[in-house]
């Protein structure tokens, strides 16, 4: 009798738990990061701890439900990751090839000893709408992209500039730093700009991010790399698309490490020295060395007299001069400036303002950099010729 009573109590207890459990939800749809010619990372979030995986399909005429698709799990060190932030990296992809994908998460209710209790599964929709897709970088005859920077959580401005920059004809978008005022929480990151980016393009069109000095501030700043993985595993990296080699640099902070604003929590000078050592190797990589266009993306320009700017001038520019860099794209100053090549900096620098968009079109004949205001009027432009 006592045993029956205990079984009844346990049944009722588990029933109450089940009633109280809410279905898991995807809180922020996936976006793609770290895209290369052969790999990509896909990032999304859920409201409850879960495992995550991606199902991949070729871009053919078959329905996504035509057959079982290969699963790629978010994992590390031989374990499937459990959490609310999910990142799956896909490798060994074909150059210049479009793929369709779907993300999944399965709720993990308990993990006691060697036993794991799972809950429900949630996934992006492929039933009443086309699955999400992306295309790896490749040997295209031309390259087209849009650059915005210093948005500082102004979603309405971001939305407008993406229209002016012409998303439809852009191969990718560059966020050139200071998209937020500082980083306090995941909610602020998404509310500040990423929800707009996902809604407009980021689930299917690549986004390359150059961290600005404002992304280094706040208690959530150390979480930034988890949301924006790169091919190198660092916040500085390179990639090749068509005839163009890109190097994306991480400028660090603009004031000395000992400045009161940083409360003794940063070590940017050492970080930039380490980055310079990497840069010296990166410019020798054939993807950059043999490119017809050599473009540098760095939030802070190497002029202006502040400590961080001087560090970039001293540590990065000599390497870039020697490597034949053709142009640097920057922001930070909240105003439009074009500085042409000088004796100390052998390439022009475009400083895009916080209210304009930069549209870049690179062909085998010309490289055109147009700065457009929020009415679509050309503010300024510069042209460069391909190398070789």
Summarize the structure.
With 388 residues, this protein is α+β, with helices and mostly antiparallel strands. The chain has helices at 2-20, 155-164, 186-202, 224-227, 268-282, 286-289, 307-315, 317-323; strands at 26-33, 40-58, 70-73, 75-76, 79-80, 83-90, 98-112, 115-123, 132-135, 143-148, 172-175, 207-209, 237-241, 244-248, 293-297, 327-330, 337-339, 349-351, 357-362, 367-372, 378-384.
User: What is the annotated CATH architecture of the largest domain?
Assistant: 4-Layer Sandwich
Gap from first CA to last CA: 90 Å
Tally of DSSP helical segments: 8
The residue fraction in helices comes out at 10-25%
Mean pLDDT: 94
Strand fraction band? Answer: 25-35%
H and E string: HEEEEEEEEEEHEHEHEEHHEHHEEEEEE
Domain count, please report it: 2
Strands, total number: 21
The geometry reads as globular
Note the main sheet: 7 strands, antiparallel
Structure description:
The protein has 388 residues and is an alpha+beta fold. The chain has two domains: 112 residues, Immunoglobulins (Immunoglobulin-like), CATH 2.60.40.10; 242 residues, Purple Acid Phosphatase, chain A, domain 2. 22% of the residues lie in helices and 33% in strands. It contains eight helices and 21 strands. The strands form four sheets. Strands 1, 2, 3, 6, 7, 8 and 9 form a seven-stranded antiparallel β-sheet that branches. Strands 12-11-10-19-20-21 form a six-stranded mixed β-sheet. The longest helix is centred in the N-terminal third of the chain and has 19 residues. The protein starts with a helix and ends with a strand. About 3% of the residues have low confidence.
């Amino acid at each position: 009798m006592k045993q029956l009573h205990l079984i009844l109590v346990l049944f009722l207890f588990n029933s109450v738990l089940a009633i109280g459990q809410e279905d898991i939800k995807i809180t922020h749809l996936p976006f793609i990061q770290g895209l290369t010619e052969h790999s990509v990372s896909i990032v999304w979030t859920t409201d409850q701890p879960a495992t995550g995986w991606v199902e991949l399909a070729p871009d053919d005429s078959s329905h996504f439900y035509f057959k079982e698709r290969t699963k790629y799990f978010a994992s590390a060190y031989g374990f499937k990751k459990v959490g609310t932030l999910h990142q799956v990296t896909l490798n060994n992809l074909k150059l210049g090839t479009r793929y369709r994908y779907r993300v999944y998460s399965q709720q993990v209710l308990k993990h006691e000893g060697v036993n794991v209790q799972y809950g429900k599964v949630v996934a992006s929709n492929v039933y009443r709408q086309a699955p999400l897709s992306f295309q790896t970088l490749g040997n295209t005859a031309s390259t087209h992209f849009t650059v915005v920077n210093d948005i500082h959580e102004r979603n309405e401005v971001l939305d407008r500039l993406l229209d002016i920059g012409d998303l439809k004809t852009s191969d990718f978008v560059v966020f050139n730093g200071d998209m937020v005022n500082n980083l306090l929480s995941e909610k602020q990151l998404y509310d500040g700009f990423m929800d707009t980016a996902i809604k407009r393009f980021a689930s299917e069109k690549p986004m390359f991010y150059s961290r600005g000095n404002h992304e280094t501030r706040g208690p959530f700043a150390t979480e930034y790399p988890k949301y924006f993985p790169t091919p190198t595993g660092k916040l500085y990296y390179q990639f090749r698309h068509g005839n163009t080699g890109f190097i994306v640099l991480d400028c660090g902070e603009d004031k000395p490490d000992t400045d009161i604003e940083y409360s003794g929590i940063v070590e940017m000078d050492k970080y930039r020295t380490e980055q310079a050592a990497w840069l010296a190797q990166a410019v020798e990589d054939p993807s950059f060395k043999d490119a017809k266009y050599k473009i540098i993306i760095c939030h802070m320009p190497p002029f202006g007299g502040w400590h961080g700017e001087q560090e970039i001038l001293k540590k990065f520019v000599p390497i870039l001069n020697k490597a034949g860099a053709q142009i640097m794209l920057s922001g930070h100053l909240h105003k439009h400036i074009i500085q042409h090549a000088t004796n100390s900096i052998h390439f022009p620098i475009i400083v895009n303002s916080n209210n304009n968009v930069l549209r870049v079109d690179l062909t085998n004949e010309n490289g055109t950099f147009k700065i457009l205001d929020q009415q679509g009027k050309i503010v300024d432009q510069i042209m460069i010729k391909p190398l070789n």
